[in-house]
Specification:
heterodimer; A: Aldehyde Oxidoreductase, domain 4; four-stranded mixed beta sheet; 24% strand; B: alpha+beta; four-stranded antiparallel beta sheet
Chain lengths: 332, 327
């Protein structure tokens, strides 16, 4: 078995990581998030709409997302550096708060109470603590026709990272950087006669602050699998150095693990309270690949008693380390 | 991929006559899992203008026992071979070899005849045409082998044939060699020991261009089902073997009366280990004898700079496979 712990500073909290978002609330009690956040499987569309639903007090099903192209949506940060939820999350939160404030103001006029006393939920706006004193969204928006009325409320927010709460002791030059932190445990079998590694089991544990969507966070932690591939399957880009040819240009020679080779169990540890995010989330993503080579190397060392410093841990290197075959280039 | 004409043959005779007709080179297609890859990567010196489909011919998909032998139709898929109860009981090495080939998708598509007739593997030979143009190695009619001075970590450890060190990757081939099968074609019956022939140029078998495998006949083991198959690969599924091995023993009163052992993935042809077989004859199989037999099989190995580890794998797998036979 091998263990490794890691901490990784994520993202670029400095200037340049700005992001914008727009949230619309409609008289029928639905809402839409308009932003350019990309989603190629990381789950940002789900998480950002979750944030909007949470802020507005609406069910998740009533919040849509408009993310067609960058011409029609406000600019968004990239989903990278493990910071999609962290940076864009602020922006979405801000835009939803802006839209909510406007609707509460409309309702406050109708109910003749200050906005601070009002609460929004899926039925409309009511006085906090008194569900009888309420207006529906439609009533709050007022009469609408072809020639007038309020048809939608638009909230907008620009977020320049880092947020003021990310300044240490209020000093602008000391910026809080979200960190990924966790530990990884690996068990494996090594055939000392053939050098083949099998039966790899991984437990990937990470403190993620607040997991806004635990299933998606688990998916991020499964990324530990890629580290395993680099460690054991010799799936590096093998190049013919004499001619510059890539010898692994297909999925036969460039290997990925299957369920039979590697079993990753994600362990999401939630410790909310990270002040740098409105909902307590912190960075999560790349970190899963961080500790894998170290824990794999430790597991290998504990199994065969020899430390191998160069990845991938091919059968050839293992057999050479065990003295079963001669190192390359050495004459008998 | 370039265009070709596709013909559905209705009988073996029609398939043969389609192959013999003029009008450019023709190839047969069964499962197509190897053929399509070869066509996409444009491996061959002559691109086929016609593909003759054998799947439309009735009667080539049977597994039956007859006259004390197993008759496997050429179009039996690897899944069907792996799951046939009679094969599991009497020819376990064959069943296991079929089970360990490729992935479920490939086993559902790939046929047993296609598996033993597949092209040899070398990443220079199979370099995709679409990336910077094909690499003209010796196997494609070029002047020299590029793997010998290049990256040959997965190549032959028993020297070259016609300057080429591409390995035969089939998993079922060593099992058929160990079980002393006979390959029945439209022209003749070929003993398995004479079937594979990398010596004939850029093909892995002795088949003529207009010759089609119709059946594989595997005799019943003389003294019970003592055969086994093992495979070493990076992954538990999908991968081609780094080294695989099949062994078939006849054991009477604890004494080995006949033995056939075959390695694959180590040479241009499946490699029968005759020195190993001789050493086993007339003896009782023990752990020590199995180890010694493994050493003998690789005594004449000539590993290259990068693939010495395959020698260690080969001798280990032979010892392990032999012990599996008496488990």
């Amino acid at each position: 078995m091998g263990v490794a712990i890691f901490a990784m500073a994520a993202g670029r909290p400095g200037p340049g990581n700005s992001s914008e978002a727009m949230v619309k609330i409609f008289p029928d009690g639905t809402a839409a998030l308009v932003c350019a956040i990309a989603d190629i499987g990381q789950g940002q569309h789900t998480v950002q709409t979750q944030i909007v639903a949470d802020v507005l007090g609406l069910p998740y099903e009533k919040v849509g997302i408009v993310c067609h192209d960058t011409d029609s949506t406000p600019f968004a940060t990239l989903v990278a550096g493990s910071c999609g939820t962290w940076i864009q999350g602020w922006t979405t939160y801000g835009a939803a708060m802006d839209a909510k404030k406007q609707v509460l103001e409309l309702a406050a006029n109708k109910l003749n109470v200050p906005t601070e006393d009002l609460t929004m939920d899926e039925h409309g706006v009511h006085v906090t603590g008194d569900h009888e004193k309420k207006v529906t969204f439609s009533e709050a928006f007022g009469p609408r026709g072809h020639y007038g009325g309020i048809h939608e409320v638009v909230g907008y927010h620009v977020h320049n990272s880092p947020h003021a709460s990310g300044h240490k002791d209020g000093k602008k030059d000391q910026i809080y950087i979200p960190k990924e932190k966790g530990a990884q445990f690996i068990t494996l079998d090594v055939d000392t006669e053939t050098g083949i590694i099998s039966n790899v089991k991984v437990i990937m544990a990470q403190n993620v602050g607040k997991a806004l969507n635990p299933k998606i966070v688990e998916g991020q932690l499964l990324g530990a699998r890629h580290g395993i591939e680099n460690a054991m399957l010799a799936n590096d880009c093998i190049v013919d150095k004499r001619n510059g040819w890539l010898m692994t240009p297909n999925w036969i020679d460039y290997r990925h693990t299957t369920a039979l080779d590697c079993d990753v169990t994600p362990l999401v540890i939630e410790k909310p309270g990270d002040l740098s995010h409105p909902l307590g989330a912190t960075a999560c993503g790349e970190g899963a690949a961080c500790p894998t080579l170290a824990s794999f190397s430790n597991a290998l060392f504990n199994a065969i008693g020899v430390r191998i410093l160069e990845t991938p841990f091919t059968p050839e290197k293992i057999l050479t380390a065990l003295g079963k075959i001669k190192a390359r280039g050495r004459k008998e | 991929m370039k265009r070709f004409n596709h013909f559905d043959a209705r009988s073996i005779e029609e398939a043969v006559s389609l192959l013999q007709e003029g009008g450019g080179p023709a190839y047969v297609i069964g499962g197509g899992s190897d053929l399509m890859g070869c066509l996409k990567d444009n491996l061959w010196m002559e691109y086929p203008e016609r593909i003759v489909n054998l799947k439309t011919i009735p009667g080539l998909k049977d597994i039956r026992e007859e006259d004390g032998a197993l008759h496997i139709g050429a179009l039996v898929t690897l899944t069907e071979l792996a799951e046939a109860e009679s094969v599991k009981a009497t020819w376990p090495s064959l069943s296991e070899a079929a089970r360990r080939t490729g992935s479920p998708l490939l086993r559902n598509m790939g046929t047993v005849a296609g598996n033993i007739c597949q092209e040899n593997r070398c990443w220079y030979y199979r370099y995709p045409d679409k990336i910077g143009g094909r690499i003209d190695c010796v196997r494609k009619g070029g002047k020299r082998c590029l793997a010998v001075p290049g990256d040959h970590r997965f190549h032959s450890i028993f020297g070259a044939v016609n300057k080429c060190i591409a390995v035969n990757p089939s998993d079922t081939a060593p099992s058929f060699v160990a079980l002393n099968a006979t390959i029945k074609t439209t022209k003749r019956d070929i003993p398995i020991d004479q079937f594979f022939s990398a010596e004939m140029g850029a093909q892995s078998t002795v088949l003529d261009r207009d010759e089609i495998v119709t059946e594989i006949i595997v005799p019943k083991p003389e003294a019970g089902p003592t055969s086994a198959f093992r495979k070493i690969a990076f992954r538990q599924s999908i991968d081609f073997a780094l080294v695989n091995c099949a062994a078939s023993l006849a054991i009477v009163d604890d004494t080995i009366t006949s033995a056939r052992v075959c390695l694959n993935g180590v040479h241009n042809n499946p490699r029968r280990c005759e020195a190993t077989e001789e050493a086993l004859m007339g003896k009782k199989l023990t752990e020590a004898l199995a180890q010694e037999a493994g050493e003998l099989a690789v005594a004449d190995a000539k590993p290259l700079f990068q693939n010495g580890f395959k020698v260690q794998m080969a001798k280990t797998i032979i010892a392990d496979t032999l012990m599996d036979c008496i488990k």
